[in-house]
Amino acid sequence: MNMALNDLIALTFYLVVWIGYTQFARLRARSTHSLSNILRQLRVDWMTTLSRKEHQIADAALLGNVERTVTFFASSTVLVLAGVLTVLSAADNMVTVLHSLPFTADTSPEKVQFKLAGLALIFVFAFFKFTWAIRQFGFVSVLVGVAPQYRSTEFTDEQRDVFARQAAKVFDQAGHEYNNGLRAYYFALAFMCWFLHPIAFMVATTIVLGVLYRREFRSTVLRALLATKGLEPGPIKKEGAAE
Predict the structure, then answer these.
(1) Is residue 171 part of a domain?
(2) Which of 50, 90, 135, 207 is least enclosed by beta carbons within 10 angstroms?
(3) What is the phi-psi region of residue 166: left when phi exceeds 0, alpha when psi lies from -120 to 50, beta otherwise?
(4) Within 10 Å of residue 4's Cβ, how many Cβ atoms?
(5) Considering only CA atoms, which of 192, 191, 78, 56 is closest in space to residue 124?
(6) Distance between CA 216 and CA 213 in Å, rounded?
(7) Measured on CA atoms in the order 79, 121, 175, 25, is the torsion positive or negative?
(8) What is the pTM of this model?
(9) Cβ atoms 33, 225 nearer than 8 A
């Protein structure tokens, strides 16, 4: 199968944007307020409060709700994969449908099969991320079960703080994996535009990039979350730094 130059450019652009944004968001969160770092702080606060509460029933229920949401996405990903593989066996029919659409680039069954295989790989990636997140949320459940008891005298305040930070770290890693799975869904939507035209593919990728950046660093919900800690969007101010 010979791919056209514009297809190669579009695919390269897509991969660079996805991988590049993933690394950018991770590094940017170290110096700029984002959903990632504010949720990390709030998870530490949650685990700190939990280690000083007499009962953790409500905490276990909240954690269970989160875990069920991730499980739903993991199950849905399997169904989507099944659908993609089904269409893969009927590439000729899909070519006919694509040729009937206006502004669609010329294609062939081989190219359609290649693109469907790429789409399937994206959802396989998402499935692995979601299932790993589920396991890690399970680890958090174990930590909630062994959290220091409120009336226990075996733990000092320092030990409770260490437990809270480490439990929050596991919680945070689970959240990151869940976020990576959701990000794969966003980029899968952009990938689907490749079936129409390479330019549509690049435009959709750019739109997804803008949506992800705005939600991570400029959204209204970020402002609300930061406000709970007396913070505002923008660079993270180091303690003791001059105003």
Answers:
(1) yes
(2) 135
(3) alpha
(4) 13
(5) 78
(6) 5
(7) negative
(8) 0.88
(9) no
